[in-house]
Amino acid sequence: IIRQIRDMDLSHDSSLEYARDLFMFSFYTRGMSFIDMAYLKKSNLQNGFLSYRRKKTNQQLVIKWEKPMQEIIDKYDTIGSSYLLPIILDAKTDERKQYKNAAQLVNSKLKKLGKQIGLPIPLTSYVARHAWASIARSKNIPLATISEAMGHDSESTTRIYLASLDTSVVDKANSIIL
Length: 178
Fold this sequence. Notes:
Strand 2 (49-53) and strand 3 (60-64) form a beta hairpin. The chain has helices spanning 2-7, 14-28, 34-38, 67-75, 95-116, 125-138, 143-150, 155-177; strands at residues 45-46, 49-53, 60-64. Helix 2 crosses helix 5 (95-116) and helix 7 (143-150) packs across helix 8 (155-177). The protein is built from eight helices and three strands. Helix content is 57%, strand content 7%. By secondary structure, it is mostly helical. It has a three-stranded antiparallel β-sheet. The two termini are 25 Å apart.
C-alpha cells in the first residue's frame, strides 16, 4: 500500500501530490509527526543527518538523510524560508495556525487518496507513523530499535503502540474465521 501511494501519478492535482509527498516524507523519516515536520528548519539538516527535537517529548532524534527524502525536498520551493518543508510559509504570521491549517488540508486530501485506492481505513498523516512501526515489526526489527526510532520514552510505550496495531490483525483473522 505504501508503494502504491508513493507511485500514484498525481501530477493532475498539486494539492493531492503535496499531501502524498508529506505522507511519504513522514514515512521515510520513521513516521515523523506532522507537527515535527512543520517546524523542521533547514539548519536541522547537516552532514547527511536530520536532527530535531520531538515537540511531544522533547526527545532528540537523528535520522540519516536518504535519497527519497531529498527528492521530496527538491520538489518544493522553500527559497527565502528557514523551514525545510513548505508547511509554514510565512514566519511573520501565526506559525501554529499555519501548521494546523496545513495539517487539516493534508489530512483531508489524504482521505481522498485513501478512498481512491480503496483503503478500508481513512488515510491520514498519522497512518505513516503506524505503517512504519508495523512494517518494522513485521520485519522482526527489535522492539528497542523501533522504540528509539519513533522517539518513544520507553519500550512499554512502543508495546502499547504496537498492540493497538496488532488488534487490526486479530480483528481481520476473526473476520476470516467467522
